[in-house]
Amino acid sequence: MNVRVIARLDIKGPNLVKGIHLEGLRVLGKPERFARHYYEQGADELVYMDAVASLYQRNSLLDIVTRTSREIFIPLTVGGGIRSLDDINQVLRAGADKVSLNTAAIQNPEFIKEAARRFGSSTIVISIEAIRQPDGRYQAYTNNGRESTGFDAVEWAMRVAESGAGEILLTSVDREGTGKGFDLELTSAIAGAVPIPVIAAGGAGKLSHVAEVVQQGRADAVCLASMLHYNLLRSLSSKDDFSGEGNVEYLKNQRGFSKVEDSALPEIKTYLIKSGIPCRAETLDTSRA
User: Fold this and answer.
1) Terminal-residue alpha carbon distance, the chain
2) Active-site residue among 50, 129, 183, 212?
């Protein structure tokens, strides 16, 4: 089985944003531009996450998903604020291939079974935001790592798999955006406890981190944000005015980029193959697009 390399795009309003520990969101640009670039460079999948869905109790990405799905022909997962079967149906009709659930699944675990029966297990991704506790155990959180659930992350992952979820998107909140590397202990514990694919997210800062989470963490896929976004930002000469959109420090200068050794998707996949990790390496022929 090829290891998938997935690009994650956290979205606030019309903009792509990025933070550290899922907080302190900075505006990076328009998500469609980044999504198209990752598609052309050979991303296996995309994840669109509504970063402020908890504020509005709904997912606000339908228009962006519709526009993206017209031009990009790889699996697209959409998450944030999806709380009902009707919400799932709307997101899928807009062009998504999968949905990512967190809060709704925590509040009503039976919802996972209902969603899997209605739409198929392969459509249902459960997002687990995990934080390491003082005793060394990991707890599952919601609301971008702000709300404690009291659920042990490993036990919750096992229940999720038993309930019919197709895969798990596992984010280490402690590592997210830091560039310090994935939490290998967390990833390995959950990957070893469930029979469904585990997508590792949170912490990648250099090429070796991506290989480590597959080889040592036993992840089936890697979900990357900072490494990809910062690489593309360095090559953009955008004339778009984002001055009224929030924290735009990353657009005005490159302070803070030093914590992450940014890389393009072909470079990441070449490194994985040289490390003995199988993945789809060919880029797309966009001349026919």
Assistant:
1) 28
2) 129
